[in-house]
Amino acid sequence: VSDSYKTLGASASKAGLHQALTQAGLAAGEDLFAPVCADVAGDPAYSCFLHADGAGTKTIVSYLRYRETGDPQVFAGLAQDALVMNLDDVFCIGTPSSLLLSNAISRNARLIGDDALTVLLSAYKELQRRFAALGIPIELAGGETADCGDVVRTLVVDAVLFGRIRTERLIRASRISAGDVIVGLSSTGQATYEDTPNSGIASNGLTLARHCLLSKAATAAYPEVLDPNLDPNVAYRGPFGVQDSADGLSMSVGEALSSPTRSYAPVLAAVYAQLPDSIHAAIHLTGGAQTKVLRFGRGLRIVKDQLFPVPPLFSLIRQHGQVPWREMYQVFNMGHRLELYLPPSAAERAIAVAGKFGIEGRIIGHVEAHGDPAANLVCLRTEQGEFEYSR
Amino acid sequence: VSDSYKTLGASASKAGLHQALTQAGLAAGEDLFAPVCADVAGDPAYSCFLHADGAGTKTIVSYLRYRETGDPQVFAGLAQDALVMNLDDVFCIGTPSSLLLSNAISRNARLIGDDALTVLLSAYKELQRRFAALGIPIELAGGETADCGDVVRTLVVDAVLFGRIRTERLIRASRISAGDVIVGLSSTGQATYEDTPNSGIASNGLTLARHCLLSKAATAAYPEVLDPNLDPNVAYRGPFGVQDSADGLSMSVGEALSSPTRSYAPVLAAVYAQLPDSIHAAIHLTGGAQTKVLRFGRGLRIVKDQLFPVPPLFSLIRQHGQVPWREMYQVFNMGHRLELYLPPSAAERAIAVAGKFGIEGRIIGHVEAHGDPAANLVCLRTEQGEFEYSR
Fold it and tell me: What b/e sequence results for A14-31 when a residue is b if at least 16 CB atoms lie within 10 Å of its CB, and e otherwise?
């Protein structure tokens, strides 16, 4: 599994990490999409979370665009990436009653100047304004910027989200049941609260995407975007520069690869409000992508047979990287980045809610009982073939 | 100011960052050592904080020791560095009533294996146990590990601390007044709750320390510990390898440089409990070191004329790096990493509390009124001369 990705020093399954977490007694549960702990204020009606995530190697795409265009504004999307990768994880367990954000930036100050820093920090302020207008207030609690060029080649943009959430309203993904249908929410198009169309990539699989699409010619002037120990046969093996256009893409390759991570949080909040007891699970397709749901519940056979058409950017990555389809579905969301598991009777309303935000929803599959009550299986029936993944 | 440090791509004053924060409307205040916001549970009796910091480039020293010894246990101290750099900041505003910790690791998975990851994550569990035994419970709320070798040469170890704290008990550093004395708490020696003596370095100035002490010969086999764009005249210009001993050091150079950051939190909690209204400010000498206090209050002339003897590690850095003394005091704590500002009558008790924990305290200076009510001045009267720094 995930051979292309592994060669590049990343892992879709993160098996090594999960083993390390288990050995340290810190393994994730099978019940909640994001872990919670007891309320800091001691109120049993509430739970708390402190969630960390970041923009990953997507910073490299923004950096390359910055070097090509000279415009520091290309860094603004990374604040959205870091925030939303957290926000959409925590909205999978429900609608928090309060949110605090802290940001952490590590940079090579020789390459990432104070102009970039100003753009990034201002972008957090602008995101706060936008989410507040969508009914999601987020307090900016502070942050840290470290100049550490001996450790960081270019830029790391991370964020942490603290929140409180009503315990009885927590969405426990272990409720996924045989008979549920799966509503997928499109990762492409343009939501009513977005300024531009989204390529769909979010902040996962960027290592594979970069190396499949961008070329050595395009990156040769910037050795700082590459681990020098990477096999040259796999590193930046594509045909494109960040400014290039490509067949089927409505934006440049660089714009598509750095398309800011869409937040589904406004949609989820509205779905939870309108269907308070119907949502058995909300799954954010991050690391593991279409197999992400495998961790939750037991004895389930999750059949996805009505997937969205593969978005152009992912087709391009597959074509130029010669990535097996089986692996594409493990690394990239391939068309929908958010799944709702719910009874068939509730599906139409959930889809209607998403539609009001300009996001296409559709029933992409359903849940059956698995013969083995201890196992989970994901079966993808796609135009490119059938693929099965087990827990 | 800080020329040696600047040449290395770091900055003691972080002027660029502060300008970026100001432009983004996120500038730090002059009142509290660590920023707080309104309570997440809506209780005006409480305030909250969400604080981010990390081990910085200290990870490089552990990495070099790992490569020389093959022992992944050398990574354990980094968990303490990341946690304590947060913990001691927030204890400067008082004793929190609850603490949640999240950790963020970014690694080059080709160089930093799962063995290192297991050591790091287990170290957080052990730290939780130890702090709980000292009356400081910390909940481990989760974390994130990213494999991103194209961005991170070796390893980034960051942490975030959320906490709640009683608003009326917040220590407002703006209370520093003419007439106060300054009690410094030693950064060296061995506290009752420490396993080994501390070199005093904590997690600040590691970029300068590494390049002044370690040699090109010692790091040549590991090009991954260096920004290749660094001027070779300043990079790793010292005479030592991490395993070497050095005059006056009771431990190897590598052990001294990676000595885990001491926490003063148990001492501070006890001082606050015994002298509930006397502590005008607690200052954690991180970035800016002996000039850190300049940000707080106004119209103050802060005279430090009884400093601790310069610890051997700092003497060694100065000697081999030919760093001006004036800059040494801006980058390194030089003997005490925690300052208490309090009335003379309370000093003896504060020193006695620290002594019970095996940490030497002493009056290292006092506060006078400055002629200009808008300015602040730090005057160091040292064996090496007098140095003045203004805000």
Answer: bebbbebbebbebeeeeb
Q: Where are the alpha helices (DSSP H) in chain A?
A: 3-7, 15-23, 58-69, 76-91, 114-133, 206-213, 216-219, 253-257, 265-274, 312-321, 325-331, 344-356
Q: Do A148 and B108 touch (CB under 8 A)?
A: no
A213, amino acid identity: L
Residue A307 CA from chain centroid, whole number: 18
Rounded Cα–Cα distance for residues B60 and A226 (Å): 19
Residue B331 pLDDT exceeds 80 = yes
Looking at residue A371, the DSSP 8-state letter turns out to be: S
Q: Is the pLDDT of residue A1 over 50?
A: no
Closest CA to B180 of B341, B312, B347: B341
Residue B262 burial (CB count, 10 A): 27
E strand segments, B79-207: 98-107, 139-147, 155-166, 181-186
Q: Do B142 and A39 touch (CB under 8 A)?
A: no
With contact defined as beta carbons under 8 Å apart, do B147 and B107 qualify? yes
State residue B190 phi and psi, 5-degree precision.
-135, 115
Q: How confident is residue A323, by pLDDT bands cut at 50, 70 and 90? A: very high
What pTM value is reported for the model? Answer: 0.96
Distance CA A219, CA A216 (A): 5
Which residue, A78, A180, A98, is CA-closest to A139? Answer: A98
- Quick check: B164 contacting A, CB < 8 Å? yes
**Helices A344-356 & A265-274 angle (0-180, nearest 10):** 130
User: What residues of chain B, 8 to 27, have a C-beta less than 8 Å from chain A?
Assistant: 9-11, 14, 16-17, 19-21, 23-26
pLDDT, one tens digit per residue, over B234-250 is 999 999 999 999 999 99
CB A36 within 8 A of CB A65: no
Confidence band (pLDDT; 50, 70, 90) for A24?
confident
**B228 vs A contacts (CB less than 8 Å):** 223
Between CA B319 and CA B302 the distance in angstroms is: 27
Confidence of residue B57 (pLDDT cuts 50, 70, 90): very high
